[in-house]
Design a protein that fits this description.
Blueprint lengths: L5 E9 L2 H15 L3 E5 L6 E6 L7 H9 L5 E10 L3
Antiparallel strand pairs: 1-3, 1-4, 2-3
Length: 85
């Protein structure tokens, strides 16, 4: 039996690869955790990252960090995932 995982999944779109790289780096440095970067193979602009931060209740802070990168980031959604229950 596996232990499960607790993390945030962050979904957003951006046409700018540099902005996406800055978002990933900011999430890493701000929270001091691993950030797994995924990219849609269907829609190039759609991004999906996993922030391996095991503390619930940080959705608003993560969303603000992503949205702070300007108008080229849109459709931001943050989900708390807990498979330990």
């Amino acid at each position: 039996m596996t232990a499960g995982i607790r993390l945030y999944r962050v979904y957003y779109s951006t046409y700018n690869d540099d902005v996406h790289s800055r978002i990933v780096e900011e999430l890493r440095s701000r929270f001091g955790v691993e950030v797994r970067d995924h990219r849609s193979t269907v829609v190039r602009e759609f991004r999906f990252v996993e922030v391996l931060l095991g503390e619930p209740g940080r959705e608003a802070e993560i969303e603000e960090a992503v949205k702070s990168h300007g108008d080229s980031v849109f459709g931001v959604k943050v989900e708390w995932i807990d498979t330990t229950r």
